[in-house]
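Hey,
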Amino acid sequence: MLIADDLDKLLNILPEFICKPLRSHPDRKLLLEIVIDLGRKPEARFPKGPEYLSNKTISWQDLDCCIKRIGNFSGDNRSGIEKTLHRISSIKNRNGNIIGLTCRVGRAVFGTISIIRDLLDNNKSLLLLGKPGVGKTTAIREIARVLADEMEKRVVIIDTSNEIAGDGDIPHPAIGRARRMQVSRPELQHRVMIEAVENHMPEVIIIDEIGTELEALAARTIAERGVQLVGTAHGNYLASLIKNPILSDLIGGIQYVTLGDDEAKRRGSQKSIMERKAVPAFQMAIEIHERNNWIVHEKLDEAVDQILQGMDIIIQRRNLTTSGNVHIKSEHLKSNDFSSSINQIFNVKQRYAKQNSIVKALNTQSVFLGKNEEFISTIQSNNKYIIDTPDAKSYYYKRSMSLYSYCINLQQIEAVINTLELPVVLTKDVLQADVILALRSNVKQNTKLRQIAKSRQMTIYTIHNTTVPHITRALRQILNIYKVSNLIG
């Protein structure tokens, strides 16, 4: 992994008593930023923590010395050093005088996106999430270079604070062949985004720090025109972006929907629920928690829907090892809205899966069957399921049993079916169902449903409570009843 930081150019703007300790510091390659505040000792910040560089306090003369060596500060109180990636941000008092500087070290790290290099080949829009300083800008800079140089795409970078491609009119070599459009004022970033699409025919647009409603709207407009987006936004988790009313448009927007009485009963949910409003502007999202620890949501729309419905989600965690290898692991994240029993089901499934090695064919699936709840592996074969039990007995199953749910939360039933991989398909049309699963207290009042079941000779299975254990037990018993008596082999 090659690193270019031009650190000496940043140290040259600082007073001698500040830069001298850093020139010989053993951890200078890990330096994150330098903080200079009036009346305080200068401070250097490293990943392991901050440390003072001198016992001398900063005076007005020290600040003026630094400011004269820096270019003009823009409307967002940021400046830079020409042909470098460093960012200098100022703190001003009420009179507009600068009383503090934050000198962020900018580095071009070649190879930092090897952890997600394969995701760039599918041409999907990518959103990077993470707290400040975790490495989003470094990653997006390397993504721009890979897309422009290695994949030979027309890439345009919207560089609001000159942090991606550096200060000055000539962009830093770290972005490769990608072109850079500078933004004169931060509040005009959304206009420059639209201008880039209309005037320069890009295939990919790179946007750093999407932070306003207008910028989120512009990103949606760009996505609807068929241009691939790569952007960053502040937020540790995908759920925090959903709760952000300003940036929720990036993931499709959130709206409250009021259901009718019958629909709310059928779903087993409240009348007012939250749903995704539209298709997300980005197809994938990445949470950067640490520099070498990333969480990938490859299907952003499905992940958002599952979070809104209170369902568990499967995420992909990627770690970059010291040897340069990428370790990918699938993890099961729980939702706070779900009962802890669903996690117990998942853990039981995992435990039994390790103990049973019966299945040696394609398309293996899993169900629970019998009073002792032994794990059973199934093989798909000629529109039927051959169930191989631990006692070597096998049964025919229908390929899929169609289930109609009445007054039970569909999301909970789907979660049980997906977790246990049951051969059950939910239907919203009672006439297409094989069986009916209903809440006992409500089915007594629905004479029409009982009449339909009687006329079509369907069985209505009822449960007392709409909890995950009750639903799991009911589905297991229904499948057990559907078992055919004849044995195979």
